[in-house]
Design a protein that fits this description.
Layout: H1 2-57
Transmembrane segments: 25-43
Keywords: Membrane, Transmembrane, Transmembrane helix
Length: 58
């Protein structure tokens, strides 16, 4: 019975550590994706703004 309890406690501890590490990795991936999307949105918005200014000059 003690070996089963030890096994379960060790297994739960490893699963908890893995979840904590994966949470940090998921947060990092989400931050990178948010930065990429913000860059794309900024680039697209700048292109539209310049296109409007050029058409207003004509």
């Amino acid at each position: 019975m003690d070996s089963l309890t030890t096994f379960l406690v060790a297994h739960i501890g490893q699963a908890d550590a893995l979840l904590m590490e994966s949470r940090q990795a998921v947060g990092l991936v989400a931050a990178v994706l948010a930065a990429i999307l913000a860059g794309q949105l900024g680039w697209h918005g700048t292109d539209r703004l310049l296109a409007r200014r050029e058409s207003a000059d004509d």
